[in-house]
Design goal:
This protein is of the alpha+beta class and 587 residues long. It contains twelve helices and 33 strands. The chain starts with 5 loop residues before the first strand and ends in a 24-residue tail after the last strand.
Length: 587
């Protein structure tokens, strides 16, 4: 999904089971969910707020929904939850896959306003999404579909994620002004981990520790299979908000990457999708310095830079507040300048979840709220056919910023020497050793090698006093070893060819990095005791991009929030002339 045309969090999940994240288990799931995209039908767009009162047509549309948002049954003050109105067997896909937006080495401490709520309650650990190498210190991930909509539970849960797909959507940094303006991480799907009954809330296993830290009280059903109280299907159809009206596919706009398409007929005036909102600030998404591994800092090429997440937020030029929307599929809705093709409009929700009084709070009071409580709704301005792409208009400020960006854009120096790691992993079979790279031909400078390896300190002697010794062990295919949390930097020292199968095995030196989980940190002893692992298969070694080298870190990447019209943006959040600042994004 390309952010020059479109816009787009569940708590850090350290408890995803190994079998769900193991690459081998992923092959048991059918991830094909494509439908032929029909041609869009042009019509005049009305900018007036539309009623969501259910007519016969809208009722028929609602009864065909399979997933609904309603107030969560997991815990008090847990906001909205995601519910199914169908019985779901184990190992089936739930909802539309998520995009993943990484927030890299945020400069604002998580105990301050601005990013506090996101980092504390909604951010996923990048070791789950595979984005830990995007930064040096701490990388948080926003999953604005099922990943944020499904609440957590201290028991088993019933849905689990599989790793995302990574690609540049055929928009390379050498040719496309859109390079760096959208996330490369997409199609992160969630699957049922067991049978789920109609009316049940979909929940993800966070573990006891997460809830104990936040002192949440959990509703526990007497049914040993169900983990939460549930609603009746009738209740959800009458009071819930449809959560699966959208799916992703290639956009009908040339060079726009992915877009959002209707999964069913959506009548004029009816709800396309609810948009719960997470309040942030422009200041909290600023990047002025890049922390290095050694703790020093490196100045950015430009004095003002913003996290990629800002491209997925609503904002207003006269306010410090940003609103990050989360709901399945909404983050892929593309911008359209042609108002005859625009088929949706935003309005504030009348659902009981939406706290109308918050619209009169000051920015400081809004950001101090311990939970989310704001929600917009995306309404169809005309009939939308099944398979039709959904468009909205981002506003004149966004359009002007994008046009200026395109006019001034040129590729950065040496852009042609960049090789994305995901391409190298597909095309490179035999890996060069460190000696071969030095003597002959090194890999592109943006790349490093990393190995899937589980360190077991209970069987190692790394803590003995002989700091000049070498630890050497044999690689073993431990269950769950292909989880991203076990992907650590490694240096290839030796390659051996099997005489019969012609497959390669490698001897490597393992390293730590700043984000390596504590239980996986290898004692380094000032590098005087190498940790050597033999017989590592090629499948356990990957290329990864070095920190701050992927497209989202390009100094010329487009950054601008999506415009929310002044009639919707509360006056209480606007800056007075005396308090206004030059807080503008790079355009």
């Amino acid at each position: 999904s390309v952010n020059n045309f479109h816009w787009s969090s569940c708590p850090s999940n350290h408890w995803v089971t190994a079998s769900a994240m193991d690459g081998s288990s992923a092959t048991t799931y059918n991830t094909n969910n494509k439908e032929e995209v029909e041609d869009s039908t042009s019509s005049t767009c009305s900018a007036e707020p539309l009623s969501t009162t259910k007519t016969t047509a809208t009722t028929k549309q609602m009864t065909s929904c399979h997933l609904y948002y309603d107030l969560s049954t997991v815990a008090k003050d847990s906001g909205l939850g995601l519910f199914t109105v169908r019985d779901l067997p184990a190992k089936v896909k739930v909802g539309s896959p998520d995009v993943v937006i990484h927030v890299v080495d945020p400069t604002q401490p998580k105990d301050l306003l601005g990013l506090n709520l996101f980092l504390y309650n909604y951010a996923w650990d990048a070791h789950i999404t595979g984005g830990q190498y995007e930064g040096n210190r701490y990388v948080a991930a926003a999953l604005p579909g099922v990943g944020m909509s499904a609440n957590g539970h201290h028991l088993a849960g019933n849905v689990l994620p599989l790793r995302p797909v990574v690609d540049e959507a055929d928009l390379p940094r050498t040719e496309a002004a859109a390079a760096g303006a959208f996330t490369h991480y997409h199609n992160m799907s969630f699957y049922t981990s067991r049978n789920v009954t109609a009316g049940d809330e979909l929940v993800i296993p966070y573990g006891d520790e997460w809830f104990e830290e936040r002192q949440y009280n959990i509703h526990t059903s007497s049914n040993s299979v169900s983990t939460t109280k549930n609603y009746t299907v009738e209740h959800l159809r009458n009071h819930g908000l449809c959560a699966d009206n959208l799916r992703s596919d290639k956009s009908t706009i040339p060079d726009a990457g992915r877009g959002a398409f209707a999964t069913r007929f959506i009548p004029k005036g009816s709800l396309i999708a609810p948009l719960p909102l997470l309040p942030l600030t422009k200041e909290s998404l600023q990047i002025n310095k890049i922390p290095t591994i050694k703790g020093s800092v490196q100045q950015q090429q430009q004095s003002s830079k913003y996290q990629l997440l800002i491209n997925y937020c609503f904002g207003h030029e006269s306010s410090p507040i940003l609103l990050f929307p989360f709901s399945s599929g909404v983050n892929l809705i593309n911008h359209q300048d042609d108002m005859e093709r625009v088929n949706s409009v935003l309005q504030w929700s009348n659902h009981t979840f939406h706290q109308k009084t918050w619209l009169t709070k000051s920015p400081q009071e809004l950001l101090a709220q311990p939970n989310t409580g704001l929600m917009l709704e995306l309404i169809a301005t005309r009939d939308i056919q099944k398979g039709e792409e959904v468009f909205m208009n981002y506003g004149p400020e966004w359009s002007e910023a994008w046009e200026k960006h395109v006019q001034l854009w040129k590729s950065i120096d040496n852009a042609e020497h960049y090789s994305p790691s995901y391409i190298m992993n597909d095309v490179v079979d035999k890996l060069r050793t460190q000696e071969e790279e030095t003597k002959f031909h090194p890999y592109p400078n943006n790349l490093q090698t990393a190995c899937f390896y589980i360190y077991d300190n209970t069987t190692m002697n790394d803590n003995n006093d002989n700091t000049n010794s070498i630890t050497m062990i044999k690689w073993r295919p431990t269950p769950g070893i292909q989880e991203f949390r076990y992907l650590r930097p490694c240096t290839i020292l030796k390659r051996e060819e099997h005489p019969t199968t012609q497959t390669s095995r490698y001897t490597v030196q393992m390293w730590n990095r700043a984000t390596t989980p504590p239980d996986q940190r290898i004692p380094q002893h000032n590098n005087r005791r190498p940790h050597i692992v033999e017989q590592v298969p090629r499948a356990a070694i990957r290329f990864v991009d070095k920190p701050y080298t992927t497209d989202q870190h390009l100094p010329n990447a487009f950054r601008h929030w999506i415009g929310l019209q002044s009639s919707l943006f509360p006056d209480a959040w606007m800056m007075t002339p005396s308090s206004s600042s030059s807080d503008e994004t790079t355009k």
